[in-house]
Structure formats: C-alpha cells, structure tokens
Amino acid sequence: MVAIEDVGEFEAIRRMIAARPAVAGVVVAGGDDAAVLRPEPGMDLAVTTDTFVEGRHWRAEWIGARALGARLALANLSDLAAMAARPQWAVVSYGVRGDHELDEILAFDAGLAAVLADEGAGLVGGNFAAVDGPEWFGLTLFGACAPGLAWTRSLARAGDLIAVTGALGRAGAALALAQRFGAPAAGAWWAPLFEAWAAPESRVGIARALADTGAVHAALDVSDGFGADLHHMCDASVAGVEIDGAAWPIDPLLERAARDLGVPADTLRLGPSDDYELVLAIAPAARASCAAIARDAHVPLAWVGRFTDRAGERIWIEPDGARRVLPHSGWDHFAHG
Amino acid sequence: MVAIEDVGEFEAIRRMIAARPAVAGVVVAGGDDAAVLRPEPGMDLAVTTDTFVEGRHWRAEWIGARALGARLALANLSDLAAMAARPQWAVVSYGVRGDHELDEILAFDAGLAAVLADEGAGLVGGNFAAVDGPEWFGLTLFGACAPGLAWTRSLARAGDLIAVTGALGRAGAALALAQRFGAPAAGAWWAPLFEAWAAPESRVGIARALADTGAVHAALDVSDGFGADLHHMCDASVAGVEIDGAAWPIDPLLERAARDLGVPADTLRLGPSDDYELVLAIAPAARASCAAIARDAHVPLAWVGRFTDRAGERIWIEPDGARRVLPHSGWDHFAHG
User: Fold this and answer.
1) Is residue B334 part of a domain?
2) Of B10, B98, B124, B108, which is closest to residue B58 (Cα–Cα)?
3) In this structure, what CATH number is given to the domain that contains residue B53?
4) Is the overall model pTM greater than 0.90, yes or no?
5) Candidate from B3, B13, B23 with C-beta closest to A124
6) If pLDDT is split at 50, 70 and 90, which confidence band does A192 have?
7) ipTM for the complex?
8) Which residue segment(s) compose the domain that B66 sits in?
C-alpha cells in the first residue's frame, strides 16, 4: 500500500493523467499551466483551476477576505498569462463553515470579481458547500487563445533566452517570514515582500503584448519556485539550461530576508515560492523588442540565461564562473517535512 | 453580524450573484443548473461545477472510491442534461490527505473518467491540494449547447405539462436509511433505493433526444428535492403549478422506507433528495411524441401535473381531489438542524 505522500504530488498526478482515456478536441492536455480545448475549428479555449486551502495557503491573521479573493483570481490569471490567453469567464467553488460571517464571504467574492473585471473577465456561476474543518476556495477560469498559438512549456529551443518577470522568490520569503513572525506591521522593512505574496501583479497584459511578437517559444508561471518550474520546462522541452548568476536581479530585501531566516539567499531565489511571475523562452533576435515592450508596460523583465541542447544539464553559473547544478526543490504539497 | 447559516445557502448565493459585475458573452448567468457562455457567435458552451465533501455528501463506509468518482461525474452530467448540453471536457479539484492510499485516488479518478467517457467527454486537467480535515472532490464540466437553445428553468409556460424522469425521492430515502442503519447488505430490500443514491442514471441521452422535439420549454435537475426544485422553477418562470397526486408514480420501496423511517411518504417523495432526475416543462401537444422517445430510451417518464398562470399558487392535488400547498423543503447545506 502506497500513500500519496510516499510518492509526492507530481508522481500522483503523473499516474492519474497516464491512466485517463484520451479526449477529443484537446490541443494542450493536463500537465501544462492550463488545458487548451478546441470547441470549434478556429477557436481555442484555455482552462485552469486552482484552490486555496485554509492553513495551507493562507491564515486568516495574514490576509483579509477581499485580498484573499483577489489573490485567488491572480493565481488563476497567472496560469492563463502563461498560455497568452485572454481571460473571459470563471466559476467558483467555496467550502465554508456555516458560522462564517456572510459579509466576509461577500467581500472575498467581490475581491475576486474585481480582479477579474480588471482583465475583462467575470464570474458566471459556482458551487457552495458547507464544511466543518478548514475552509477552501476554488476557481476555474477560462479564456480565449489565438488558435494554435497558446504558449506551452514544451517548445523551448536550444539558444532561446530565458526572461523572467518581477522579483522572484519574494512570495516564498514572505511566507517563511510570516510563519516565523506573523504578518508584518505597517512600514516593516519586509512589507514589500509580503505585498508580493499577498497581491501579485497580473501578467496577462504583458503576456499578450509579448505574444504578438511571435518570438516567445515557451512559457510557464512560477507557482512552485523558479528552480522547480524551470526544471519542469526543461523536462517538457527536452532542453538544458544555463542560468547566469551575474545576470540575476539583485534584491536587497530578499538578501535581508535570507539573513533573518538563516538560510542561503539562493534558497529564497530559486526555492519554493508561488510568485505568479512568468518564465519565458524567447528567440535571441527578439530580445530588444521584448525588452522595449516590458519597459513600456512597466514590468521588470530580467534576462537570466539560455536554453541549451544538453537536455540533462541544468546549470547555475556563479558570478565567478563556477558552474553548479541548478537546485530544483519547489512546493510539493504532499512531501514530508 | 450575520452568519451564512442565519440566512441559508440560497440567500447567501443570491446576495453574492447580485453584487457581481455583469460579464460579456453570458447567455444564461448563475442561478440555473449551468451557466451558458458564448465564446463565438454560433457557439454556446454550458458550464457547471459541483463538489462532494466527506461526511456531508458521503461516508467512506457507504461507497467505494471508484463509485464515488462515478457519482461526482453523474451529478455534474445531470446539470448539463438539464441544459440539453453535450458534455465535452472536465477539470477536477481534489483536496485529499497525504496518507490517503494512492490507489484509492486513482480508482476515484478512473471511475469519474469512465462515466465521462460513456458520454464522449473526458478530463483535461485539474488541481490537487493537501488537506488535514475532511476531504473534498470537485468537478467543473463543460459542454456544447445548440446556440440559443439551452434549456433554462425560467421559460415554463402556463399549460405546459410537467414530466419527471426516474423514481423521485429514492436518493433522499437511501441517505436517511444509511444514516440510520449503515449501507444495506447485499440483497437487502432497500438495496435498489441505495443504488439510486449511489449510482444515478445519466439523463444526458434522453435530454438531447427530447431537445430535438423543440417541445421542452424549461428544465432542471432534481438535486435538492422535487418540491424545492419545482419551486425554483416556478419562481424563475413566474408560474404556478398543480401536481396530480393520482398521477404520481407508485413506489412501494419508497413507501416501505417511509414506514421504517417513521415519516410520511410525501416527505420522501417531495422532500430533500439529490436524485439527479429531470423535471421538464413540455408543450401538451408533444406529450405522445415525448413519451415515445422516453419509452424507446427505456427511461421512466411520468406526467405529474401542469404549470398554471397563477404564479403564487403551488398545489398538490390529492387523489380524492383535496388541494393543499406543495411542500418545498429541500437541501440547504447551511440550514440549522
């Protein structure tokens, strides 16, 4: 007898997907950021789902109901951004306790709906269940893709540059700090880290602008951590990577967090962190045009390495030129410890 | 301060929906069995979601993992049947404990996938979360509708006949018996009732065949109980109803269950029961043709009453002609008691 925690989340999912019958009309199947479906020729639809569980994904003392609803929307929007899809509709599934204040649930729902509305999307239905234990909030989000042009994680090519949006590792650092010290007081030095966790930016706009260049060959969003997610991309694309430590954006707040937490800075940069930022494989010739698009959109975009044709090789190059294996420990919700 | 259980599930949902911004491309919004979306002119997509919560919707000693997965698929298929939609794709969301046996989860997933495959639909993705408390299993299912022709619950007309599939009330009776006596032994007199709860029939095929007649004006599926669901249909259609007690199908097993449980038989017929059967508003001229379609499909179809233009009036006519108010207590997951 084997328990889920014995094999881990990813192996359990792999076995589940392997056993499922094939389905007609599927352009991109499970295992990417979103599935892509083709209801009619000439129309592609991306669909993703994510659920937050109380005590696992948040604690009530860290984040208010409205902000939590917004964050659930942003987590799902991030998956559609990673497919270059245009968000359209969503259905929710809430499991809440009967004594939960109604106004809190309405605030959650309103926070979620407001973020979707900012992207031209909205809630069209849902399901409401009563629970006795921890609460959970799920969202399933659909959007339109340019037919045949949805980004996947499997088409990165040797020579493609690796670009990342935002400041990676902040969400994971904030969570570790909050678990140790509670939510930060207003004005605390690490409030910006906490903000990165509590209210990630939507990358839908920049994704769609970059998609128009045709130069993005593959993409995913960082929901487990840069190291783990990049390994997923390498596996799917059968590619190697070299990451230039010298090109990695310096983040003094993250370095301070590492000192306060007593962990190496790389653990926070590359380890478990649901940043909801994009990792992009971009044709080298398009570097300048993509950089200009990001600048115009006020989105930080860092060029941190390249894909290689040495599929098994995932390398971090230290600023002094030393090469070491890129760590790949991300979130595994079922892992021990 | 008002808690959800103070106002009940339906009022909480009503307030949530009322506060949500309008969304483009929505043909049928929240509050029906499924939402209907229009990604492109000439193409309608129905979407529904449902989640089973351990201890609320099932107990492990009543139903195995594979059968439970099948039942979750059937619950969602029932919502699409009630829209006359053709099921196509589904995504799951599972919240399970880390020590859960992997084979059990794979069996659940396989049971769910097999039922979907029977209808030409399949799983395309999902989300997997770790929980410490009660487990839950959610499904979001979508399918195609003939553009503009999805059934709703709001277009029943005065004079329409009311037809119901299957044997209503059996699921609720089985649940009450199981709560009192545990799951039935093989060959127990009430095993057929339990089977109606554990493995409801898919009504997708009969729904699509009836839709082709153009004579079905409104539909919903019985997920709360006939009385409650019919009241929802009357409210949505601004119509009254008369139900002929004399036309109601005699169900000796349900009558025996009522005796054993010490409740009136009407409580089981009309009260809380997630039968996943259809309630249909059908043009009187089409009675014979619809009856023939049901007979050919081997689906029991009973003609139990008619809609009237007296919107406030919901009447049960006893076999002796006495008229009384149709009860409407269904499931409210947050109601006290």
Assistant:
1) no
2) B108
3) 3.30.1330.10
4) yes
5) B23
6) very high
7) 0.93
8) 4-145
